[in-house]
Structures are given as C-alpha cells and as structure tokens.
Amino acid sequence: PRILVAEDNPSNYKLVEVLLRRDYTLLHAWDGAEAVELFRTRGADLVLMDISMPVMDGYEAFARIRELAPSLPIIALTAYAFEADRQRMFDAGFDDCLAKPLRADVLRTKIARLLGIE
C-alpha cells in the first residue's frame, strides 16, 4: 500500500520513514499544498497529515483531499495532545489522530486497522 506523508519537519518524516518503509511505499509532501498535488497526481491508500505546516495547513489539505476521495483514511499527526485539540481533529473528519512523538506500535496498528490489514 502507498502512504502519503505530509510532514514539514525532516526529523519527523525520517522517523515515519524508518518505521514504515519496509511495509509501505511512501510519498512525502513538505506542506499541505504539495500533499494535495501529490495525492491528485500519484494517489495513496492512506494519508498521514501533519496539522501545522507552511503554505497550507493540515486542515485545509485534509478538506481538499477529502473532496477528491471521500472515503480515504486520513490520520492527523500533531504536537497538540490536548483533548480539545483531538476533538477538533475528529470534528473535522479525520479518521484518527496521533500525538507526536509517535510511538511505532501505535502508528503501525492504526495504519493496519484503517487499511484493513490487521
């Protein structure tokens, strides 16, 4: 399966890459606008979407990708771990959310569940 990772921080992307590259094909977008364009041109089976990015934030990129693929699983990645922040992500329509720093086991489990490959 192909995962689009929208993440502007190089070290955060590197962690995701190390955790997932053996099991998934990864596409990397450095900002929300690039994520939308990469999804439009290359597609993906799941998106990991950082919330705070330059050019276009994760909420806007999420909305635009959702217009193109209403049932695509999209997981929010955020440094904001407060319950109100999590609720805002779920209210926006994200399928799940993960707080940074990411835990490998939780990341893998959520992706497998959303892709139906548990």
What can you tell me about this protein's structure?
The chain has 118 residues and is α/β, with parallel strands linked by helices. It has 5 helices and 5 strands. The chain has helices spanning 10-20, 32-42, 58-68, 83-92, 104-115; strands at residues 2-6, 25-29, 46-50, 74-78, 96-99. It has a 5-stranded parallel sheet, sandwiched between helices. β3 (46-50), α3 and β4 (74-78) form a beta-alpha-beta unit. α2 runs parallel beside α3. The longest helix has 12 residues, at 104-115. The protein is globular and about 30 Å long. It starts with a strand and ends with a helix. The mean pLDDT is 93.
List the keywords.
118 residues, alpha/beta, globular
Poorly predicted regions = none
**Assembly level:** single chain
Continuous helix count: 5
Strand order of the largest sheet: 2-1-3-4-5
Rg measurement, Å: 13 Å
H/E element order: EHEHEHEHEH
Helix % is: 40-55%
What is the number of beta strands? 5
Q: Briefly note the structural class of the backbone.
A: alpha/beta
Mean pLDDT: 93
- Beta-strand proportion: 15-25%
**In whole angstroms, how far apart are the ends?**
13 Å
Anisotropy-based shape? globular
The biggest beta sheet is recorded as: 5 strands, parallel
